[in-house]
Amino acid sequence: MTRAAKSPPKPKQAATEWPHRHLLGLEDVSADEICLILDQAKHFKEVSTREIKKVPALRGKTVVNLFFEASTRTRTSFEVAAKRLSADVLNVAASGSSVVKGETLIDTVHTLEAYRIDLLVMRHPASGAPHFVSRHCSSRVINAGDGMHEHPTQALLDLFTMQERGKEFDGLKVTIIGDIIHSRVARSDVFGLTKLGAHVVLCGPPTLVPKRFEAFGVERTTRLEEALDGADVVYCLRMQFERQQANFLPSVGEYVRLFGITSERMKLAKPDAIVMHPGPLNRGIELTSEVADSAQSVILDQVTNGVAVRMAVLFLLAGVN
After folding, report:
1. Which of 165, 243, 248, 297 is 20 to 30 A from 46, comparing alpha carbons?
2. What is the pLDDT of residue 203?
3. Phi-psi region of 319 (alpha: psi -120 to 50; beta: other; left: phi over 0)
């Protein structure tokens, strides 16, 4: 396995203002801009510890959560984040909208915009759907996951959680394990981590971690022991059985035997390594309950930090800074 070229180091100082109209992915976001969001999230993390968990930053603004796929963490996190910023929130699920009657995506968005909304948080099964919508609407668009493309706010909360646990990005070894090919989370994490100087290793069966991923400036291996050796962060991805149209694995049992994370295998990583997972977790498949519930696990911290990070994103995109 050839070590990837060293990525640019983390910038010394975050950007001072958000320059983009939308947040569609991290591929086109700079390291400075990522640090701006992380720095803003630190301020908003404190809001959730108050007796009254609310600030008036987005009073008078309207946020719409438009979700065409099932979601627990992302949708509720955006809803809580918007409400803690005092915004008005409207949740729209495709299953309960006119989409089921044949309404087009753009007609749905234009209908919502007729209510004079400000921010549109969108999840869609088609890769590129938020990008398409952003070109045909006046509100600001936040990608909450598009097909197998990107999930930028998940990556941002992952970065925030690593940073909160004292992990310096420059030279940090982050091992991402599992269903890479179907993971929008993995793509966004790779873009964010490499821009901040981390060393990323992708690991899994060759059918789920194609060689083409090396083009992202990361290492790729099918040997779990090699991937875990000296890792600072062990990031387990959910096996996306609903997206696996082909026979990517001989069996689930075979995957667990070769790539499931156990307490014994975690001993290969650094003693202070943390374990992460974007959820929902398939216990006993991606990792054992013993690992998921251990002191090394920061899975629930990721959920908590999602609110602060999404507050930062909503705040910056609304232009109130």
Report:
1. 297
2. 97
3. left
